[in-house]
Design a protein that fits this description.
By secondary structure, this protein is of the alpha+beta class. The protein is built from 9 helices and 15 strands.
């Protein structure tokens, strides 16, 4: 029996280390994307991207694995620890969030007739619950089959993840993760209070858009250069955090001072109950990003380099040819619906005190937001909104 089969459980400390690594990865990736796409709406699932890369990492070795561990925040953790902790977090996410819809799925397709090391497949089946099967990437229907899987797992919100990622000759494996979330606010906004208001977009222009309004006791924070509010979903475990920079600041500046450790130790504990008024835009966003360039910029280089990558734990002479994430989010009076699919194609060679008076938080300019699970501390989604109604 293989030794990794005995590593079925992770300690709470291991889970905390992995959660911190995941969240650090999320903030770092969002910063890189904001640098690459200034003033663009961005919405990602760091959890989804990290999950599919950890699946690939089960076959990485040498400097390739070292670079992946550095970027993913898993440096110093054994592969057994990462796998077991990831499984424990996934189980906790499904266990506690019974009042919302939160589903996750992983899959691996490999070229029919190719030899893939059994340990790699077994690890991903055991710890990531991956469905695994052969497929013929030379057949056009292979793209449709993968897209159909994404469409099903995201309830129709993301339907075209694999387009352009598969080479009919050189693609040997395709790995994917899907996350779907739908939750109602624990205290919904009333549609009758939604009014058209101006939103100040980057560059000095304005757009008149529907803005939701609510006066109540919020979980609120006023920090150095920003206001923030926590909006829980039914069940209270999952919540959206909205961060509104002051007029002399920006979402990029605010994001620049945030990381996973600071989020857990400083920012999140600073929220307190306070009476106030919140005005928040309704928005709906679909986002797609090719992850190869930003991951390389963060230091994950060898995995994408033909002849340099070491995925000997999968099969000889492989490298990551493409990595992509597609996401969807809609925020309205009732709640939030969000989805993400992350995919990897593998080819062969070839802070201030709050004021005493009730606060007013008018989210009428670009802002930062995230959706976190309080039981595990996992940030499932995060993004920057510069124009809630961009075309």
């Amino acid at each position: 029996m293989f030794t990794w089969l005995y590593q079925l459980f992770a300690s709470p400390a291991d889970e905390q280390k992995l959660e911190l690594g995941d969240n650090n990865f999320g903030f770092t990736l969002l910063k890189q994307l904001a640098k690459n796409q200034p003033a663009a709406n961005i919405f990602i699932s760091p959890y989804s991207a990290a999950t599919v890369l950890k699946m690939v990492g089960n076959g990485a070795a040498g400097e390739t694995k070292a670079e992946m561990d550095e970027v993913l925040g898993t440096k110093g953790l054994s592969a057994n620890t990462v796998n077991a902790a990831n499984k424990a977090i996934a189980v906790s996410l499904n266990k506690f969030n019974t009042d919302v819809i939160l589903t996750m799925a992983n899959a691996i397709w490999y070229m029919r007739g190719e030899t893939v090391k059994p340990d790699f497949l077994a690890l991903n089946r055991q710890f990531f619950g991956s469905t695994i099967g052969p497929i013929d990437f030379a057949e056009p229907h292979s793209v449709d089959a993968i897209n159909a899987w994404a469409n099903e797992k995201t309830h129709g919100r993301i339907s075209r993840i694999a387009d352009g990622m598969i080479d009919p000759v050189y693609t040997k494996l395709f790995l994917a993760n899907a996350v779907y979330f739908k939750g109602k606010w624990s205290d919904p906004f009333k549609p009758k209070n939604t009014k058209d208001r101006p939103f100040h977009v980057r560059g000095g222009g304005e757009k008149v858009i529907p803005m939701m309004t609510r006066s109540k006791t919020f979980t609120y924070q006023q920090g150095a250069g920003y206001q923030a509010v926590r909006l829980p979903y039914v069940g209270e475990n999952l919540a959206m955090y909205i961060f509104l920079p002051e007029t002399n600041s920006s979402p990029e500046q605010l994001l620049g001072i945030m990381n996973g450790d600071g989020w857990q130790r400083v920012t999140k504990p600073g929220f307190t109950e306070k009476e106030g008024l919140l005005v928040l835009p309704k928005f709906k966003l679909e986002y797609s990003v090719e992850l190869k360039q930003p991951l390389q910029a963060l230091g994950m280089k060898r995995a994408f380099e033909m002849g340099q990558a070491d995925f000997s734990g999968i099969a000889p002479q492989l490298y990551i040819s493409a990595a992509r994430q597609r996401t969807f989010i809609e925020v309205n009076e009732e709640g939030t619906e969000a989805a993400a699919t992350s995919a990897v194609g593998i080819q062969v060679l070839g802070i201030k005190e709050p004021p005493l008076n009730p606060f007013k938080m008018i989210v009428d300019r670009p802002f930062l937001f995230l959706i976190e699970d309080s039981q595990t501390g996992t940030i499932l989604f995060m993004g920057l909104i510069f124009d809630p109604h961009s075309d």
